[in-house]
Specification:
18% helix, alpha/beta
């Protein structure tokens, strides 16, 4: 069984998710944004194995460096196309905010179809380019951690570097909308939703 805790960080109101496999007690942090103290406190008693990133924009990686120090055994993973973004403030866009972010190199990279083992829980990697070239979603059972690919009645913006609206539409239609309708969507911003609801109500990507 997978336990899920959501922390909405300040600034960009980005959603960080803390996953814990109830059988083994192993945890993963998805997209730690700019509330490093809040996230550190929420995870201080956990055995964090992974820090997983849906993409490399600053608002999703801001606390990686601090959490690496706080959880010394945690491994940081990102899609292979965006591994350089963790050390390049121009690519992760933090240079635009006047607060350059350098998280250090990732411990591992992943690609479409990879499976990340978190105790008895399997997180399946879906490469969903569009918001960025290396955007991914993580799927475990009927839980989808969508990053900035799919939102409640919306999708991620595509006007930033490596964004592509055609790619985003294909990612949502071909990969996310192929999941069961009762799959719960945990997005990188805004409230949660379901695949079935978005198929019917998302004006940005219609079947």
């Amino acid at each position: 069984m997978l336990k899920i805790k959501q922390i909405t960080t300040s600034g960009m109101s980005e959603n960080c998710y803390i996953l814990t496999d109830s059988d083994t007690g192993l945890s993963a942090i998805i997209d730690p944004g700019d509330d490093e103290v809040k996230i550190s406190i929420a995870t201080q008693t956990l055995n964090v194995k992974y820090i997983l990133l849906t993409h490399g924009h600053y608002d999703h990686i801001w606390s990686v460096k601090r959490l690496r120090q706080f959880h010394s055994g945690a491994q940081v993973g990102i899609h292979t196309l965006e591994q350089e973004w963790l050390t390049d403030p121009q690519k992760n866009l933090s240079s635009l905010m006047g607060k350059p972010v350098n998280c250090g190199k990732p411990d591992f990279v992943f690609d479409d179809g990879d499976v990340i083992e978190l105790g008895e829980t399997q997180l399946h990697v879906l490469h969903t380019p569009g918001h960025t070239c290396g955007s991914v979603c993580f799927v475990s059972g009927k839980d989808l951690f969508a990053g900035d690919t799919l939102f409640f009645e919306s999708v991620g913006r595509t006007d930033l570097p490596t964004g592509n609206s055609d790619d985003l539409e294909k990612s949502v239609k071909n990969k996310l909308y192929s999941l069961s309708d009762d799959t719960k969507v945990y997005p990188g911003h805004m409230r949660s939703t379901t695949i079935g609801y978005e198929k019917k109500n998302n004006d940005y990507v219609r079947l």
